[in-house]
Amino acid sequence: MCTFNGEKFLNEQLNSIEHQSLLPGEMIVCDDHSSDRTITLIEDFADRVEFPVRLVRNESRLGVGGNFSQAMALATGEFLAFTDQDDIWLPNRLERQLNLMRRYPTVGVNFGNAQIINESSVQTGDRLWEHVRFSTETERIRASEFLPVLLRHTVLTGATLMIRRELVAQINPVPSLWLHDAWIGLYACALGYDVVADQQSLIQYRVHADQDTGVRRKGPNYNRLLFERRPIDSTLAQFEEFANRVDELESKTDIVAELIQAKLNHLQRRRLASRQGVLRRTGIVAAEISRGAYNRYSNGWVSAIADLSGRNRVSP
User: Fold this and answer.
1) Which residue from 203, 210, 285, 302 has the least number of CB within 10 angstroms?
2) Are residues 232 and 270 in contact, defined by beta-carbon separation less than 8 angstroms?
């Protein structure tokens, strides 16, 4: 768990962990220099639970990715379950995910669906996968099939994530441009690890005004993700960094390299379009639409319309 000024919802999350049908072997909490009662709440929790809790207090802020990198490096268990500070675990989350990981030895990453709740912990009736536009009929998804999904848009939610310990040395550190969940999913698939996508809700996922990432709180674009609101040049920088890390892998396959290069080519064309006037921009976007690149590597017509309208314009 990584925390930062989380006192408002933290107790509910801690209570849900304390009452799991299968308790964790250990709990690592990395606090990113909180100034509220977060530390006190964690210390009280550590005093009353049956499993060891290790609390690390950062002297300066590391940010989300850096803090989760630190937490992963400190964990010692065979499987690592990630948690946000403001959600609520359903009672069998750990037990269910652990059973699935043991059922599928080739799986490195396991994530699931979630019930959406509001600031008052009341269910909205929605489920998370509806808002990240993801569904699957297959529990275990091969890496070669899931990588194209992640290259299109992030569907893996860190709040429901479990990984094998052996992955940590390969995925750490999480680059500063990336959130940990998107990075872990992509890199694990590039390494050839299969994925379990569990249709069952594992947690209650809280939507509130103070969150930094996740589903929007309200408004006409409620089904968009906060971390998708990123200029095209920033997205390109992310995937250039990802491509460079993958290039260092001896185990990468030709298909992985080809998929990543195709994603980069698409983002480079989108960035080029953002620097053009209306006529040239329209031509570039039309060509990308005709080759199906927006559907394979971006958010389909949403991205195409944004590019056509000039909303993704960047300075030359």
Assistant:
1) 210
2) yes
